[in-house]
Design brief:
With about 375 residues, the chain is α/β, with parallel strands linked by helices. Helix content is about 30%, strand content about 20%.
């Protein structure tokens, strides 16, 4: 059993602590935050030890650091953890800069340590069923497709939304990893990208928390459009935005030589997956409720625009699978090479938008191995 120390006790921490309920090899022992009160509150809630950042990095009882800080701090915290000879699993993205992430990957290899990265949603029932259908040639060779993530922005519900609208934040950094990771899992690595970003407003209004009604500055583009060419020659169009109130489009659609797929939300673990064969044929919905990581396990009544009323949420499977990989000396699926390539897609999209030109990717990766239900059940607690 590997002991996990958490750095960053913000909103996402609760989701990861819930992973202890599902996975049998996740064992949190300590937490830290620059806000000591937040660390103490979290420690009391989950019966673990509150420490300072320095203390948790130097604690010999901690084997793995789970880095849940804001994206702008990911590089520094992960680097310090690797230098302290600890494995790292980090929230997305790996860093806000490609070169910094590449340094982290090289440091992990040099020290014979594992570095893993969210998102792990592609390992869910919906993502793995889609992968299986494509691998089995059910829709033939994928030629093209599209994806969308669009909502008004986190200021509608988050009391401290500023970092989402500053350098190192934005819709592509925030939501791009889900969609790009899903596509790479299905189609393989990206070859080149052309993108266009736009900032429509210089200021936004706080809609929640103590600053409600006040405004804050917007520093970066809040909507992006993409044309992405993959190494397998598929071409995918995409749109990610913090400027849309409502829409009726599917999250992702893929079109092959024998049929088409509607891929479930890459930000979630469930389904269904929809498939259609020959021209004019009916669409068939395939449920994943019978899958170990597809069954609805959360009924959400928050009413937030970014949350489904019912969802399958098994965040932490990437961490659990990395721990199993450490113990069995194999490559984990949410690995550093994949995360680096996803960050490369993100950064190249931003470069393309600034230069108004197509950009060739600097990196590549291997598609993660499919994850079969029998293996997943070995990691799950007996419910």
């Amino acid at each position: 059993m590997k002991n996990i120390g958490v750095i960053g006790c913000g909103n996402i921490a609760e989701t990861y602590f819930r992973a202890q309920e599902y996975f049998n090899n996740i064992n949190f022992v300590a937490c830290a935050d620059i806000n000591l009160d937040a660390a103490k509150k979290t420690a009391e809630q989950y019966n673990i030890i509150p420490l300072s950042v320095d203390e948790i990095l130097n604690d010999k009882n901690v084997d793995i650091i789970l880095n849940l800080t804001i994206p702008q701090a990911h590089y520094e915290i992960s680097k310090r953890a690797l230098q302290a000879n600890k494995h790292v699993y980090c929230e997305k993205p790996m860093s806000v800069k490609f070169d910094d992430a590449k340094e982290l990957l090289n440091l992990a290899k040099k020290n014979s340590l594992y570095i893993g990265n969210a998102p792990d949603t592609f390992l869910g029932g919906g993502g793995q069923l889609t992968r299986n259908l494509i691998d089995n040639n059910d829709i033939g060779k994928v030629l093209t497709g599209n994806f969308i993530f669009a909502f008004p922005g986190v200021q509608d519900f988050h009391p401290n939304p500023e970092s989402w609208f500053q350098e190192g934040g934005g819709p592509v950094i925030d939501m791009g990893p889900y969609f790009f990771t899903t596509l790479i899992n299905l189609l393989g690595p990206v070859k080149n990208i052309r993108a266009r970003g736009k900032k429509f407003f210089d200021k936004r209004e706080y809609k929640a928390g103590p600053k409600k009604g006040e405004t804050f500055d917007v520093e970066i583009p809040t909507s992006y459009m993409f044309n992405i060419e993959f190494q397998n020659n598929a071409i995918i169009q995409g749109f990610i935005s913090f400027d849309v109130l409502n829409h009726k489009r599917n999250h992702m659609e893929l079109y092959g030589t024998k049929g088409s797929l509607v891929v479930p939300d890459p930000n979630m673990f469930g389904g269904p997956v929809s498939i259609s064969g020959e021209l004019g044929s009916e669409w068939k919905n395939i449920s994943v409720e019978d899958k170990p990581l597809g069954k609805t396990n959360i009924v959400n009544h928050s009413g937030k625009s970014n949350e489904a009323p019912k969802q399958a949420n098994y965040r932490g499977i990437g961490l659990a699978e990395m721990i199993d990989s450490i113990e069995n000396n194999r490559i984990h699926r949410c690995n550093g090479e994949l995360a680096l390539h996803v960050l490369d897609v993100i950064e190249c999209a931003m470069i393309s938008s600034i230069n108004k030109a197509e950009v060739k990717l600097r990196s590549s990766c291997v598609k993660p191995e499919p994850m079969h239900d029998d293996f997943i059940r070995q990691l799950l607690k007996k419910m």
